[in-house]
Design brief:
Elements lengths: L1 H9 L7 H20 L4 H4 L2 H21 L7 H10 L1
Helix pairs in contact: 1-4, 2-4
């Protein structure tokens, strides 16, 4: 997560391509779910870097939705809703 956060920070003034955004959302969601299933505590998973990455991807998602007309089934919000259900 630190590597991804650093990569996104280095590109703060650049928008992500739609393909990059979709892939990064899937990676972050899968990583979060997999570690949670392995029993990693929420306090460890919800680090400051995770919040930074999540906020950036959410912002990029909103920008892409306006610019491209939607994300076609990929969303950071999905992972929030799934976490609240389980």
């Amino acid at each position: 997560m630190n590597l991804l956060g650093t990569w996104l920070t280095d590109r703060m003034d650049l928008q992500l391509h739609l393909y990059q955004l979709k892939i990064l959302i899937r990676i972050v969601k899968k990583k979060y779910r997999d570690f949670r299933l392995q029993g990693v505590l929420d306090s460890t998973l919800n680090s400051k870097m995770y919040d930074t990455v999540r906020n950036r991807l959410t912002l990029e998602e909103a920008t892409a939705s306006v610019r491209e007309g939607g994300m076609h089934g990929v969303s950071m919000k999905d992972s929030d809703e799934e976490d609240n259900v389980n």
